[in-house]
User: Fold this.
Amino acid sequence: MAHPVSSVGGMEPPDDVRHDLSPAPERHFDAEAYDHRWTRDLHSAVRCAAVLLALLLLIDWGAGTLTPWRTALWCILAALLFVVLCPPRVSAGAGWLQSRSLLRTRTVRTDLLVSVRCLDGVSQRLVLRDTFGERVEIDPQVLVANPELWYRLDEDAHKSEARGLLLCGATALNRVAERIDCETARTVFRVSGLE
Assistant:
């Protein structure tokens, strides 16, 4: 079924690619790439929340102020810490990138990107937006630590650029590519004993 292409910022894709557009790309599960650090980061979030809960309960018990309602309060506080620390699971395949958190799943068509922006702040974020208005935010470090994810995104971003869709984002992608190149060089030096 053909889906109408939404205009993002008044931009319509060229006629030669309009027939390829659909909001959900075909998914080939054998060709998917995942964030390999996600399980480790998830365990770290669980450990931090458990340690906080244990410390709060121990302090309350030692002070003799441990009550059921305070125990419930500390459990809620530990659960909130877990929600804040729980990393989204990032996966990518040919033509798509997905970020799945506890509360929602967001998917963007990487072969139909219209913009890639880098947001600086407490934690740096890479914001990807496609022709359908879908938006995904990811930590650039996920791409640096997982070259196969970066390869998928970079390959599809070049397709978007060749189609004339990606007008904003070359600088952000180049910064990520430079970080990946530096990390690769550091790894080579470390492995060869030159660091």
Remarks:
- Residues 39-85 form one domain.
- The first helix runs from residue 15 to 18.
- The chain is about 50% helix and 15% strand.
- The beta strands are 33-34, 89-93, 96-100, 105-108, 113-119, 125-130, 135-138.
